[in-house]
Amino acid sequence: MNIVENIFRDADRxxxxxxxxxxxxxxxxxxxxxxxxxxxIAALSxxxxxxxxxxxxxxxxxxxxxxxxxxxxxxxxxxxxxxxxERVIRETGVSAIVDATGHLRDLPLADxxxxxxxxxxxxxxxxxxxxxxxxxxxxxVVIAHETLLARVTAANxxxxxxxxxxxxxILPMAHHFAVSIMLYLLHGATTVIxxxxxxxxxxxxxxxxGGTVLYGxxxxxxxxxxxxxxxxxxxxxxxxxxxxxxxxQTARAFDARYGVPLSQGLGIIEVGxxxxxxxxxxxxxxxVGRPLPDFQAEVRANDELFVRGPGIFDAYLQPWRLRTExxxxxxxxxxxxxxxxxxxxxxxxxxxxxxINVGGLKCFPEEIEAxxxxxxxxxxxxxxxxxxxxFGAVPVAEIEARDPSNPPSAGQMAxxxxxxxxxxxxxxxxxIVETIPRTASGKIQR
Length: 446
Fold this sequence. Notes:
- The chain is an alpha/beta fold.
- It folds into two domains: 1-351, Rossmann fold (3-Layer(aba) Sandwich), CATH 3.40.50.12780; 355-433, GMP Synthetase, Chain A, domain 3, CATH 3.30.300.30.
- It contains 13 helices and 26 strands.
- The strands form six sheets. A nine-stranded mixed beta sheet has the order 2-1-10-9-11-12-13-14-15, with helices on both faces. The protein has a four-stranded mixed beta sheet with strand order 4-3-5-6, sandwiched between helices. Strands 7-8-18-19 form a four-stranded antiparallel beta sheet, with helices on both faces.
- Strand 9 (166-169), helix 7 and strand 10 form a beta-alpha-beta unit.
- Helix 8 (199-208) packs across helix 9 and helix 9 packs across helix 10 (248-258).
- The protein starts with a helix and ends in a 13-residue tail after the last strand.
């Protein structure tokens, strides 16, 4: 089974598949471009091909060509530093890299890539993506054609995307292509690619092309909420927020500006989109909602969140571990800490590895950041634990000011935090920084 064949088989060739800047191509034109691009790729001897290409129509064509040719797609994100890039190439054992022009650069095949070629091939892999690596070492996640199809089918039972939809796309394809873009193509929608993150450009594209769905990170939603023209977005029906915790002030400001609540979801490269806040996005913007129809979720001991459902990844590449070796009786341990309220809505508390233990009392950076981000003058914040001889660790904060020439004072911020947080959660220091470092998907780097 090849998932791209499914897309081609079911496509209305006259319908618009992709829009980028002033270029618009139909599904028929997309199929023709993919079939041309796949010819040299299919002739490669190795099983995995790297893709080094920015967002755009070329990225979609080349990614589909790699997968359609029976090769496993390995995206090479543009923000990777040279050592990170080399690690991805080395650990996946790619045989060639394709750039934005379609040029192929052959690479020597490793004698021993560190995993069994036979075991990997037996999975029918479509895609290997490294996790974002916001903490610790990222992992190579292997997803098979069958798994990918099950995943996007399950996600769309909640999203309900179809041929009438035009999705405004602003996230990096190197991180999100194999699930999101594949889902849109498989269900006959139009993807409007916007190569700008500014609120006015995204809004202009949404209005010009009749965008019905917005899929982005809180960073993008905040810029859209602050867009000052006052122009409406009348065709927008669904706005999904993923990749990072959604600040309440961003959710409220976006809803007030466009009249559409932000539906926060939990996207996991190993699982897909198991949770999405569709029914209570306006009433509970801080929730990631409930499991989508084919999924289940449980909060177990120590507040750890487990999920199960279709489309869970097939293997970790290095070191090689099959899905069955990772799951707990079919459940995936997400690494998130959460609680479920009386109505069954799930709220994330933080990541299990980011908890700060202050003299035996636990606090979560995300909880503290949510309060800091409410302070007038604070554009963004990052809280981490710093070693302390007396307490073991204490929270410290970095602050990105809205007006760098007039940042909020440490006293102002501490006073605000003391009114909303227990004393041990109040940061012991506040450092003003130029920018809070983020991944390409908008996650805060920790």
